[in-house]
Each structure stands twice: as structure tokens, then as C-alpha cells.
Design a protein that fits this description.
3-stranded mixed sheet; alpha+beta; single chain; 285 residues; 2 domains
Length: 285
């Protein structure tokens, strides 16, 4: 939960900074929101929608690519509204990226929607999906459509008791540091690359994020084996590839003139086993 019981007799926040493993770039916080206590404690532990969440209206933007996500980040900074954007790691959200603008009433949310819709149309694309929703997705999954939410007297009383004994204040007033944001953005790029988002290439300098796997299902198998021998000899014993080729030509010569196959060559050299690269070949090879 991230709280500890203090000597004042109240629960206080443990975290003093935003973690490096967050998928979100928080552009600006809405000071009236207390998501840590409302979602993580009141909803997750007790199963009701808290009063503050009843008046939380989110304009949700669905960037389709990493490039659109970074463009949305620029929009959020320009609009300077309470907002965040990032990658969607939740398995129950059918999208890779998301952006959220936070509002405290339906009227405010509708006004924000119009502003965001216009900005996205102009700077990204009119085809980018945008909606206005109430509260968190998890609430509707558990409790049904948001229009039907209500708080019973039992939970009103519980809410008052929780508010009296939990101090949600966080000493972190500066938000995410530049180092933290750089880490967040690197997670975005890796996520996009992993999900085959072609726009990730624009942020990788034309290089793959990780080396590609070598593939052996096509090509001349004899040439592949020669390449493997060259690589092993060079890596393990620093033998130049051309020297390996010369030795191999000589060994093939014994096969042609003396009928001593590569398999039998192992016995000639005093080994009990043969090179596994040649397992399965006929002695005449």
C-alpha cells in the first residue's frame, strides 16, 4: 500500500518520489486528487467508489503509435492541464498507448474534451480516438456502468473514518526528475519496439534495439557448417577464417585421395567423438 503508521496515530505515505518503473509521464498533477488512497485503499480494499472519484472526469486519448504518443506529450505540455500519458501495460485495456486529462466535473470534462479534440486533430490526426469517461476503468469492470454508481451510508461512514486516519500528503513536490523521465521514455521505446510499432525505428537511430537472432532454416547447409567452424575457431582460438578454410580444404583432400572422411578424421587425430556439425552425414562425404 505504501503507507506506514506514524507516531501521530495516522497512516502516512512511504513513497517520496515517483518510481522509475512507472509507464507514465506526469505532465501536471491535479491537486484535488488522491488516487493513492482512493483507488489503492478505498476501492481495492473495500470495494466502493470514493467521493472524489465520483467527480473525476477523464478525457482519454488513444495514440496509435509511439510517434503519436510523443506528439500527445507535446500537446499536454502546451495545454498545461492536469494530465499524463504513456504506455498501457494493463492486460484488460485493448491498446498500447494512452493519454489522460483530469477534470473535476462533467461540465469541466466536456470543455476539456473540446479543447483536446481540437488540438489532437490539428497536431496528430482526426482519426485518433478520444472519449470522456468517469472514474477508473477498474471501477466499471467491478461495479458496472458509471452512471449507476452510488455510495451507501455504510461506505460514507467508512470514508470519513479513513480520511481521519490517513494522511495522503507526499513530500515529493517536484514530480518526476529529468533522469526519471528519460527512463520512462526509454521504456516507451522498448515497448513500441516489442509490439512491432514501426515508428519506434525513428527513435533508435536506424539500429535494432537488440541484435536479431541468427537463422539457420534457409541456405546451403554445408556453407552454414563452414561458417560455424570459422566462427568457433576465430572466437575460441583466434584462428583466421582463411586458415580454417585452408585446413578444411586439406581435410577434404584426404577424403578425395585416401577415402578418409571427415568423420574418420576425428579418429586419426585421436578423438573419441566427431564434430557434431557432421553428425548424420555419410562416411563418403
Amino acid at each position: 500500500m505504501g503507507f506506514y503508521f506514524s507516531y501521530e496515530g495516522v497512516f502516512k505515505r512511504l513513497a517520496v518520489a515517483v518510481g522509475l518503473d512507472t509507464p507514465w509521464h506526469h505532465v501536471r498533477h491535479l491537486k484535488t486528487k488522491r488516487c493513492g488512497i482512493d483507488h489503492n485503499l478505498k476501492f481495492n480494499r473495500f470495494g466502493y467508489v470514493p467521493p472524489r472519484c465520483m467527480e473525476c472526469w477523464k478525457v482519454v486519448v488513444g495514440p496509435r503509435t509511439l510517434k503519436e504518443l510523443f506528439l500527445l506529450l507535446d500537446i499536454e505540455k502546451d495545454l498545461d492541464r492536469p494530465s499524463k500519458c504513456g504506455i498501457e501495460l494493463r492486460h484488460y485495456t485493448p491498446k498500447h498507448y494512452g493519454g489522460y486529462f483530469y477534470n473535476s466535473s462533467l461540465d469541466e470534462g466536456r470543455g476539456c474534451y473540446e479543447i483536446v479534440r481540437k488540438a489532437v486533430d490539428e497536431h496528430i490526426s482526426p482519426e485518433v480516438g478520444i472519449i470522456l469517461k468517469r472514474g477508473c476503468t477498474e471501477y466499471e469492470m467491478a461495479l458496472g456502468p458509471s452512471a449507476m454508481w452510488y455510495i451507501s451510508d455504510k461506505f460514507w461512514d467508512l470514508d470519513k473514518r479513513i480520511e481521519a486516519i490517513v494522511d495522503p500528503y507526499s513530500p515529493n513536490a517536484e514530480g518526476q526528475t529529468e533522469e526519471c523521465l528519460a527512463m520512462v521514455h526509454s521504456h516507451w521505446i522498448e515497448w513500441a519496439w516489442r509490439n512491432m510499432d514501426k515508428t519506434a525505428d525513428e527513435y533508435l537511430g536506424g539500429m535494432p534495439l537488440y541484435p536479431e537472432t541468427m537463422k539457420y532454416h534457409e541456405g546451403n547447409i554445408s556453407e552454414i557448417k563452414l561458417d560455424l567452424m570459422r566462427a568457433k575457431a576465430h572466437k575460441k582460438y583466434d584462428i583466421a577464417p582463411e586458415v580454417v578454410d585452408s585446413i578444411h580444404i586439406a581435410m577434404r583432400g584426404f577424403d578425395m585421395t585416401k577415402r578418409v572422411s571427415l568423420k574418420k578424421m576425428g579418429a586419426v587425430l585421436g578423438f573419441d567423438s566427431i564434430n557434431p556439425l557432421f553428425a548424420g552425414e555419410e562416411d563418403t562425404i
